[in-house]
Amino acid sequence: MGTDDQVLLTGRDQRRVGDAAREVARLPGTRAQVRGRVLDVTDTDAIDRLADELRGQYGGVDVVISNAVARLLPDESQAERADEFIDVSNTATHAVLRSFGPVLRPGGRLLVVAGSLGTLGHLGPRVRHLFDGASLDQVEYAVESWRTAIHNNTAEEAGWPRWLNVPSKVAQVAAVRAVAATRRERDLATDTLIASVCPGMVDTATSRPWFSDYSQAQPPSQAAGAVLDLVFTEHVDPALYGELIRFGKVLDWHGGTPPVEQDRILTA
Fold this sequence. Notes:
Layout: E1 6-11, H1 14-26, E2 33-38, H2 44-58, E3 61-66, H3 82-100, E4 104-113, H4 136-151, H5 155-158, H6 165-189, E5 193-198, H7 220-232, E6 244-246, E7 249-250
Parallel strand pairs: 1-2, 3-4, 4-5, 5-6
Antiparallel strand pairs: 6-7
């Protein structure tokens, strides 16, 4: 990247966003202009305004990385935290896809950081059909149906797992697949990539409480490599387009088995 390039770091906390932007700007290899911007991804109107602003200022964007997550601890009630978790992981992902997809310039990258639990087989058979081949509208409807079932205490009866992370990750990947399906031919003709990415097991304050052994987990700086490899690759591999990618390989959309509820597995 060069001195004319702009990098925008977003987050909810103004101090943390500002500190991160200044830290990155001071790194020896940084040539681009780095700015911090306060953005709460649960505010879908704010996401739309930011996309419009960047289109107006720069004519669009070249790279979008959606990487928001709500921290959930093992001893917290999954049902009580469902709204926040779904709003951050799913409603926000849908908004990013809807708002930034149209302003992504040819040759650009739009990547949603998800996890290996995002494949369809990790859901129970009664709800898999809601996401298989679904449009973005249908994914959104399925997510809201799941949310309603949680509030009505009917989620397990309907076939939804108790653990929020599984339907949430499947829905993220399904949303990416839905958007990619509508623009695949055009994007591949211009080396544009839309995909979801699993960076592997990452050692963070969010993940540590869920692991009894995190000796194999990567620091965030190392895990970012899996994402940046896709950002900076010169040509898009058509086999990767619209898929869930882990370490450069596609994870089978129909693969996986429903995890045992008591297992503490993170999105590795």
